[in-house]
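Lab meeting, action items carried over

1. Structure of the two-component assembly. Owner: GW. Status: complete.
Input record:
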Amino acid sequence: MTNPVRRYRLLAPIATACMLVVLAAMRPAGAELRIDITRGSVEPLPIAVTQFIGGGPEETRFGRDIADVVAADLERSGLFRPIDPRAFIQTRMALKTLPRFGDWRVINAQALVQGRAKLEEDGRLKVEFRLWDVFAEQQMVGLAYFTVPENWRRVAHIIADAIYKRMTGEEGYFDTRIVYIAESGPQNRRIKRLAIMDQDGENHRFLTGGAALVLTPRFSPALQEITYLSYYRNTPRVYIFNIDTGRQELLGDFPGMTFAPRFSPDGKKVIMSMAKDGNSEIYTMDLRTRVVTRLTNHSAIDTSPSYSPDGKQVVFNSDRGGAQQLYVMGADGRNVRRITYGKGRYATPAWSPRGDLIAFTRISKGIFYIGVMRPDGSGERQLAKGFLVEGPTWAPNGRVLMFFRQTPSDSKGGGGRARLYSIDLTGENEIEIITPLDASDPAWSPLIP
Amino acid sequence: MRFNIMGLIAAIAAVALVTACESATEKTSGASGAGAAKAKLIRIPHKPAEPAMKAKMAGPKSGSQADLVINVGDRVFFDFDKFNLTSDARSTLEKQAAWLKKHSGLTITIEGHADERGTREYNLALGERRANSTKDYLIALGISPGRLKTLSYGKERPVALGSNEEAWAQNRRAITTVTGGTPSG
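Predicted assembly:
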């Protein structure tokens, strides 16, 4: 599935070496061009992403398409403002000569991306790019990649990630995928299918046919597998879907409904709920040894477990205190403590891949909220709200979340539209992810290795 | 017999009111609870192959899902985020238990459902609790546990459409469905 893309560093020093540096006019020397993504609303950085040059029409097309995807990724992050190419003064770019920085300063481009697409004799596509600090007249990063031509989108996302990382100091999240539930049909007989797509909505594919109701998919850290709930043969059970082979495997033989599955951070276990005699408890199953371990033992509902990234703790949802709240326990089930004390009910906890925050759904006075808090329950912040917003999932860099938003439905079955949205950790930049059908239960993949 | 037919028509009318928001021409797979009940109800008057006389004589077949829906009541309702049985629910389940004793060869599945005002996974657990408290009461009334299964749909299969209190109240339910065995009498 994940076609390898080889990368190596371009001869980065070349540019700097042949440049008798004209001291940057606008910024004091040493002040690096950098985006601080920890602040609330950041003024997006003006960046010029030029069409990657190519020889023939095919290379030219790759060059244009790749530049478009890079610009779109950067723009959707909310941190960059790609400048309209019609404003460009220098329209012919060669990688071997320096850009005419003055031409880019005139249109106020702070950063400049140029690149080249070349089809090698062996059929591979070579894509190289450089990121320039326009005012310092310095190359910030320069890389080249070889790949099969069909893989050009991934290369574009990898380049966007490299630019994001160089400018923000954080890992990017563009070379990732989303698995989610595609919904269609009337609300009382909703057809739900597993579907997968790139984080920008491209390369969309349905994974199941819709005969069985499926819910709550989650990626394995190794990416080839998804764990989810299926009502195959009217029996709700946790399954594992192999993306490479399309095989669906029932996870264990349990005496009751298994649901709310998630992989452990090392991918070796699945943690989930099992309901027996009406009581939902949290269990883990070791995928190799098939050993099942019970973590909770309480007459209340215990569900929606999510591991901390170090695998040492689990946050989960329980109504043992009378209503739905979030609790944290050790990975062995010990030392359970409640972390939510705000107004309303708390649900669907998702531990950030950075470990610093837990995202959740909160329901208060008929309104649903997506929020985050520290693992000890302090620092609660609200990111989004609506009639029904639910199920936050983290981008691998822990800076962006995705969730779904559903509108109310009327008594004739109209409305009830469900869509995916991404939002910054700051609560800014909420964007709909375009899907062919209605969509819910998103799960963000790790970075593709 | 004429009395039975009147009863049947009245029951259909009553159910039609309850589910008035749903199109009568829709076909359901029979897999989902209330949808299945409704489809079977509608199929009775519309069955083209059935001679009119025979239909009049038969009514809902004794021990069938339609019989349960019309003459007993196939569902009980719950308060918001609750799974304890109301007195109405107990009274319905007492009738169900009598009916199940009469048709002792039947096996049933109790489907637990929730309204849309909760989160998906919690509602799956809540639906399971509702199905189970229904099951427990039927067992207490003398029905053999071996005849009873539970299945939670959470908020996935509403019977009433619309985002309003009336619809939510109808969707917080446990439905008894005949899933196997043979009726007696």
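2. GW to write a short summary for the group page. Key points so far: The longest strand of chain A covers residues 138-147. Confidence is low (pLDDT under 50) at residues 6-29 of chain A.
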